[in-house]
Amino acid sequence: MNLPLTKKNILLGVTGGIAAYKSAELVRGLIKKNAVVRVAMTESAARFVTPLTFEVLSQNRVYMDMWEGDPKEIDHVTVAGESDVFIIAPATANTIGKISHGLADNLLTNLFLAFKGPVMICPSMNSNMYLNPAVQENLQILRERNTHLMEPDFGELACGDEGIGRMPDPDNIIQALECLLKKTGELSGKKVMITAGPTREFSDPVRFLSNPSSGKMGYALAEAAVARGAEVTLISGPSQLPKPAGSQVIHTVSADEMNHAVIDHIEGMDIAIMAAAVSDYKPASCQHEKIKKNREKLSMDLELTPDILDGLGKRNNGLFLVGFAAETGDLIENMKDKMLRKNCSLMVGNLVNSSHGGFGSDNNEIVIMGRGNGQVDKLPRMTKRQAAEKIFDRIVEEIKQ
Ligand SMILES: Cc1cc2nc3c(=O)[nH]c(=O)nc-3n(C[C@H](O)[C@H](O)[C@H](O)COP(=O)(O)O)c2cc1C
Q: Which domain holds residue 383?
């Protein structure tokens, strides 16, 4: 059996926390799993455990000094390029602050910026430090950038207090790493198209019909798909969100433009997730000049916009098609009906008139309905990124069947 850690190049970053001694156990555990381990340490970490310990355990040189090494190779670029996964354990509040803000004043933080693969961070510190809003905000920045955070354990801390902040046991970290590596490769070779955000249907040069969609769900899906190794094309309506790293983004404005972009790029896609909130109707005509306020009443003819999901469902060419249903009532019935009518493989639904999250929010409370086995998963409120992971877990499960 091909185990996830066998022959994998693991870059382990060790920073100056009291739990640095546990990283020595972590190296031993990884080596037992036949991984190739290279350790990068900060100078503070070397105050807790000597580089020699890691050198002997990993059977590799330890990377600590940015200014030494082979002049023909720049360590942080070469080592980052040769590693499959980067794990920082323990990660101090200080290093978390630096990497969440793009600071790079030592070899370890340079490696973080130069590394393009999956990153796992194990924050470890006193619970007051961990719960400090500055640290929590820095962790949130990392989470949103696709970094996998392993929650610290609750228990007795080195300072004698009890609370959250302990670095998890090396065995649990190894398990989480195996899980991450399995997931990161799960969609490699697959092409995924995702639509996101609202559309704007202009009635004159300055007014349009739209909805409050922010694009957060679709962008979170793009990040999750990239993290699992997919080649991602994100077709986005107007959104303020930064481009999700690693995906190709095509910007559109109206439903017609989004439809054209979908048709132009659908060839060769394996999975299409239609998460955009597309206007159903558009003004029958768009005035060239701004409509003047010179009447008591103004009515406007609307006409249907193209039904993008329906168009893809009719192609029926082996595409795994995921539809979204944002409903204000009878969610399950509407989802079932939409899934069959639009020939979708999977349907994700959420109520948009409630306190359950939805439009604009960072959280969402979703229901996933599969066509294959008809299973309905009602998920609790969670971040959109977590919801995206659940959706991909289900997609991967259904594709395998
Ligand atoms: C005895 C001792 C234990 C420490 N333990 C931690 C810790 O567990 N977590 C943490 O974030 N900082 C801890 N610190 C503070 C860090 O060592 C300090 O912030 C340092 O600048 C971290 O540098 P680095 O991030 O470059 O490794 C500790 C400091 C001392 C003196």
A: 191-400
